[in-house]
Specification:
8-stranded mixed beta sheet, 28% helix, single chain, 416 residues, 18 strands, alpha/beta, 26% strand, globular
Length: 416
């Protein structure tokens, strides 16, 4: 079924009785060409681009819960391409270009809104850093504007410009940045992959990876053994646990990242705003809720919930930046399991096991990377060569020292 405005109108007149299921609910087959472990945004986009770009359709996506039940539905929906380091810069630039055509590509409304992202600076040093970052973005072919304090005040007058501890010196505006609806991204890719013959197997947890003579042969699941020539681990915060089934120890720690949403309010925040000193970021959803978050909880955990000290920390940062939100009621919060690498950058690579591939270590950048991650992972699995924009995301860079330290804070998990 192809969605359109005319279809919506016609179904509305008929009582919405003609809508079909967005994707099938197949039982797993005994064997596939490719198995993708993980039915989140990255796994679904990998399956979609394998089918669309490379003609590989005998694929099973195995999800232990339901489609979209992991980190793809537990984030703050920000889409941007304002990275500085070689490796990250070209990758996220490629991802943003894919985002801009995604709704037409998938025939699905993912609510991609390029409302602009504003990163604030609070010292001369931060302003110089943003200038360098902006120049790198422009050199990559993306947009960036370095704003003065007066320009920021004119665009977002509700910030606290007079605070003495973190005065606002200006900001870097990235107009092509913005937000998208996280659930809709998963549903759109799921629908697109299913339409090309991919089997989406929900409630199917992988319990083991079958390896014989250094070659992957398939997986063991709660719904029986499934054979495959190639297997991809695309499970975000569970990467270390699944990789351990193949005898691998990954350079990844799993941490909790909390997010929050308030009651619906009248439109007040037009952009995505990032606090340069408090690692606080905020935007307003189409339903009016303020969506915001901050730092990870700084302790290793596989729980999809956080702790109260970090709640207090995020609220303090929000009040410091924009006191006007102090009376808004927080309706709910959630936690995502972040797979944090030592340098804060991801991994898309083959593993030492022949036929086994890894897509992991997305840290804070997982949602915005969904299209390019799938595009590059599909290219790697189909051709056994890395895509040009992801060639630096090698697994062995932590052994060779060729790290991509985007934040410039050092190669330690706790610093990212």
């Amino acid at each position: 079924m192809r969605y359109s405005g005319l279809k919506v109108l016609a179904e509305g007149l008929r009582g919405n009785k003609g809508w079909g299921a967005a994707w099938r609910k197949p039982d797993p087959k005994p064997e596939y060409d490719v198995i993708i472990i993980g039915g989140g945004g990255h796994g679904l986009s990998t399956a979609y681009y394998l089918a669309k770009n490379h003609g590989i359709t005998n694929i099973a996506v195995l999800e232990k819960g339901y489609i979209g039940s992991g980190n793809i539905g537990r984030n703050t929906t920000i889409v941007r391409a304002n990275y500085y380091m070689p490796g990250n810069s070209e990758f996220y630039s490629h991802s943003l270009k894919l985002w801009e055509g995604l709704e037409a590509e998938l025939n699905y409304n993912v609510m991609h809104s390029q409302r602009g992202q504003l990163v604030l600076c609070h010292s001369d040093g931060q302003r110089d850093t943003l200038a360098r970052r902006g120049n790198a973005m422009i050199n990559q072919g993306d947009d960036a504007e370095l704003w003065t304090r007066e320009q920021v005040r004119e665009e977002v007058p509700y910030l606290d410009f007079e605070q003495t501890r973190f005065p606002i010196y200006g900001g870097l505006m990235h107009w092509r940045g913005g937000t998208a609806r996280h659930d809709a991204v998963a549903w759109g890719y799921a629908r697109g992959a299913d339409a090309r013959g991919v089997d989406l197997i929900e409630n199917c947890e992988v319990t083991g990876i079958d390896i014989d003579g250094g070659v992957v042969r398939g997986v063991q699941t709660t719904r029986g053994a499934i054979r495959a020539k190639k297997v991809a681990i695309v499970v975000a915060g569970r990467s270390s646990q699944v990789a351990a089934m193949a005898g691998m120890r990954l350079p990844i720690e799993s941490h909790v990242l909390q997010a929050f949403v308030t009651e619906g309010l009248k439109p007040v925040i037009d952009h995505v705003i990032s606090f340069g000193m408090g690692h606080f970021y905020i935007s307003q959803s189409d339903k009016g809720g303020l969506v915001f978050g901050g730092d990870i909880d700084f302790y290793a955990s596989y729980a999809s919930r956080g702790n109260l000290p970090m709640v207090e920390h995020v609220m303090e940062a929000g009040m410091t930046l924009m006191p006007m939100i102090g009376r808004a009621k927080v309706l709910r919060s959630w936690g995502g399991i972040m797979d944090m690498t030592p340098d804060g950058s991801p991994i898309i690579d083959k593993t030492p096991v022949q036929g086994l591939y890894l897509d992991a270590g997305w840290n804070y950048g997982g949602f915005k990377a969904v299209p390019a991650s799938g595009w590059c992972m599909a290219h790697l699995m189909a051709t056994d060569t890395p895509h040009e924009v992801a060639r630096r995301f090698r697994l062995d860079r932590f052994r060779t020292g060729h790290t991509i330290d985007e934040e410039g804070t050092g190669s330690q998990h706790n610093l990212h």
